[in-house]
Amino acid sequence: MNGLSTVLIVVGLFFVGGIISFVKQKMPTSLVVLLAVGAALCIGTGLLYLEV
Predict the structure, then answer these.
(1) What is the pTM of this model?
(2) Among 11, 17, 7, which residue's Cα sits nearest to residue 49?
(3) 44, 14, 20, 45: which is closest to 32 by C-alpha?
(4) What DSSP assignment string belongs to 1-52?
(5) What is the pLDDT of residues 8-44, one digit of tens each?
């Protein structure tokens, strides 16, 4: 596990926490979806870097 994959996974999990917070605050759905896409990309990229 290298540093880049760890950072990407941690940032993705931070975004997931933001998604939960935004849903509780009843923020606009488009903002929540945008954050969800960013979280999925960060976590997915981090997991792919684990394989390298």
Answers:
(1) 0.87
(2) 7
(3) 20
(4) --HHHHHHHHHHHHHHHHHHHHHHTT--HHHHHHHHHHHHHHHHHHHHHHH-
(5) 999 999 999 999 999 999 999 999 999 999 999 999 9
